[in-house]
Amino acid sequence: MTRPVALITGVGDGTGAALARRFAEGGYAVAMLARNRDRLRSLEQEIDHAKAYVSDLADLGGLLATVATVRAEMGRPSVLVHNAVSATFQNFLDADPEDLERNFRVNTTSLLYLARDLVPDMIAAGAGAIMVTGNTAALRGVANTAVFAPTKAAQRILAQSLARDLGQKGIHVAYITIDAAIDTPWTRVPLHPDKPEDFFSKPKAIAEEVFHVAHQDPSTWAFDLVIRPFAENW
What we know:
It is a single chain. The chain is α/β, with parallel strands linked by helices. The chain has a single domain, classed as NAD(P)-binding Rossmann-like Domain (Rossmann fold). Helix content is 42%, strand content 19%.
């Protein structure tokens, strides 16, 4: 039996890799997109039914070329998980305005390009899913997110526009806000060395929620889902 194809952007060592594992375990052939060739190749060897595609989402023309290669080699994706993120944490006076442009291109414009490229096949099939992973920068701006939060807010609103357009065409679009520090080596030790275990969200648990939302019954589709550790003070 031919496996359906899930295209996942931003496949790193944390949430992206967990998403690739979960969709592969759930019966998909997984196209993994990211910039780091070595990491992708390692995951390709580790995860059955997963294939690596090196792609910088800031290069929109290159992104479309990569998607065309995925379609030719694996088939037409029926699921898109947009997990890639470009982030800058600086005061607006210190940040380079060019960072806002790059963050917007990776976080938001690439989502528009991917949707325009993939959705026609989903409409023809009468089914599909677009899952977008976000964070609370999409809901509020703080002092050091002036060139980051606007791009995530725009990403969420774009996803909402897609959801309102595509829902009645059988395509489920959802925005999953992760209100947490994610348990990865680069967040645990350098940023939160003294935090307890229950402070962090686990990539595997995040991936489970994304997979679940992507397969909800059409009578109970969610759009906005906020997930956080039980001990999070919100």
